[in-house]
Write a structure and sequence with these properties.
Serine Threonine Protein Phosphatase 5, Tetratricopeptide repeat; single chain; 2 domains
Amino acid sequence: MYSIKHPFRTKKSLLLIIFLLSWGCEKQPIQPVTLDSTLKTHYQQIQGERTGGARVQLQQYMERNGESPQPLFLMGLSYHKEKKYTKAVEWFEKSTNSEGDTSQYPPTLHFLGWSYYYLGEIDEARKVFKKFLQLYPNEGDSLFALGLLAVESGNYEKAEGFYLKSIAAQEKNPKGIAKAKARLGDVRVFENKVNKARDLYLEALTLDPDLYEAWFRLSNTYRNEDMSLFREYLLKSKEAQKRFLQNIHNTSFPE
């Protein structure tokens, strides 16, 4: 996958401020949901790769305060950060099923969806993302995820629809737009519309030149046509991958 296999790569607010935005639910507006201030340190530990220590402290926190959705979510997030998706699912599921005093924590559904995706549980991932989008219908990264899942099912027309919705929903997020355009380029390749695919790859790479697999896919469209461009874009792919691997990528919402 592209560097966008983890679409949460860019740094976002510690308080996950996406939930402070209005999502246009006019009849029943969703109340803002932020991470409890007492859990900020644990979140920062997870972001800083100190996942083991974070889990110890989260366990102690729950011994004092009881289990509730947010610390359970962070337990899952610590395993998600380590790419231990089976364990992540276990804790995310506990968070969504928690009967603690605090309300359910919506980001749990989003990360649960991605964990199922990485485990190859396509139907479960789709179900969870759709549940999350019932709350936040314009959340671009979950729309993007449904596009990936549609491709997995071979439904390119549906995938195109989700990618276009994802692009429209991420007006202020050029990297989010970039990855959706790159994946839409993949759809055009599947449809044998190579020139349209190239245009989309170049548009995506203008917005985010570190999408190394997009460079690679673009180079492949020239393999049997123009070896000079093939080699040029292949080199750019290697350079972009090196840049990408040198950067620290935080697990923030949206994924």
